[in-house]
Amino acid sequence: MAGMIEDRLASLGITLPTPAAPLANYVPWVRSGALVVVSGQLPMRDGTVAVTGRLGAEVTDEAGAEAARLCLINVLAQLRAACDGDLGRVRRVIRLGGFIASTPDYGRHAAVMNGASDLAVAVFGDAGRHARSTIGVASLPAGAAVEVEGMFEIA
Fold first, then answer.
1. Which is nearest to 68 in space by CA: 43, 46, 97, 96?
2. What single-letter DSSP state applies at residue 50?
3. In order of start, what are the domains of the chain with their CATH numbers?
4. What is the mean pLDDT of the chain?
5. CA 154 to CA 106: how far, in whole Å?
6. Which residue range or ranges hold the Endoribonuclease L-PSP/chorismate mutase-like domain (predicted)?
7. Residue 89: other Cβ atoms inside 10 A
8. Helix (H, G, I), strand (E, B) or coil at 115
9. What is the distance between the alpha carbons of residues 61 and 112, in angstroms, rounded to a whole number?
10. Which CA distances in Å does 84 have to 81, 87, 95, 148?
11. pLDDT above 80 for 1
């Protein structure tokens, strides 16, 4: 299955980056038995936060959804490291959590987080369907517009 997941990523035009180093005193992922929990990932591209600001102000819904997608790409890079380089070990995306920097009156958080959720399903098929929480927040590290974390079952 490892080749199948890599093929799906390639067909989507996605090359996973080198996993980002933590920004503070935590680890990027924890593996416990068959579970892997990946710490929140920002919309990093080429070592910089690609989408900054708040939804409902300077960031459009479309840019927010792209930021969520980019966050999930970075989650997948961490997950691949946790799976010793073999994403074929992933049996299920259990949960994704999304944090959306937004104005107090913004209400389209779920549509933004679909950028990550849709990619999870595109990459893993039915095993990519997951439980999810999406929360609006006042700010995120490095001024990021979105942050995404995940929990996965692996073989």
1. 43
2. S
3. 2-14+30-154 (3.30.1330.40)
4. 96
5. 36
6. 6-137
7. 20
8. helix
9. 6
10. 5, 8, 21, 21
11. no
Cα gap 134→82, rounded to integer Å: 24
Assess whether pLDDT exceeds 70 at residue 29: yes
Segment holding 119, helix H or strand E = helix 109-124
Separation between Cα atoms, residue 127 and residue 57, nearest integer Å: 35
Give the pLDDT of residue 3.
84
- Report pLDDT for 2: 55
User: Number of C-alpha atoms within 13 angstroms, CB side, residue 57?
Assistant: 13
- H or E segment to which residue 142 belongs: none
Residue 64 buriedness (CB in 10 A; 0-12 / 13-18 / 19+): buried
Tell me the C-alpha distance between 136 and 144, whole Å.
13
| Radius of gyration of the chain from its Cα atoms, rounded to whole angstroms | 15
